[in-house]
Amino acid sequence: MSAELREVASELAGVLWQEHTVYRDRAGQVVIRGEHVQRWISLASTGGSDEALLRAGRILDGGTTAPARAEAVVPLSAGTAALAAACRRLLAETTDDATTPAPRGPERRPKPRSRRDRRDPHTGLTSWIVIVCVAGFLGLCAYSTWANGV
Question: Can you give the pLDDT at residue 93?
């Protein structure tokens, strides 16, 4: 089945894109990368002997692949033209997903900062206690040095 997927992927890549790379990934899927269109397609065998799982996704900046945005199960016996049509449909879905902005929630105004938030966190009671203790220790050291005449 894997050799058959590789052959089908090579034929499919030639139909879809002039510039492409076909390789097998770690999971055993055959991947077709179209760097010039920033898209990828993978073919994986399913439980059936004549079916393949097609997945399509984007190639991100730096060459890494984003997770699949669209997928479909297609029969391999349908022929290269039918597989190419299914791939083009999946690629169109990934393009639509990439260009459509994500839906945003209702616009909210930021809440005004409370008086407690506006206060500098370093001038709290604990900070003043530490400052007074350090000043007292330094004063005690200076007094003991002066008293001993050193």
Answer: 85
Q: What is the pLDDT of residue 144?
A: 92
Distance CA 27, CA 33 (A): 16
pLDDT tens digits along 128-145: 899 999 999 999 999 999
Hunting for tokens 């791939």 — which residue is that? 87
What span, in angstroms and rounded, lies between the C-alpha atoms of 96 and 139? 72
pTM of the model: 0.59
Amino acid identity at 7: E
H/E/C letters for each residue in the chain? CHHHHHHHHHHHHHHHCCCCEEEECCCCCEEEEEHHHCEEEEEEECCCCCEEEEEEEEECCCCCECCCCEEEEEEHHHCHHHHHHHHHHHHHHHHHHHHCCCCCCCCCCCCCCCHHHHCCHHHCHHHHHHHHHHHHHHHHHHHHHHHHCC
Cβ atoms of 31 and 42 within 8 Å: the answer is yes
- Report how far residue 17's alpha carbon sits from residue 57's, in angstroms, rounded to the nearest whole number: 15
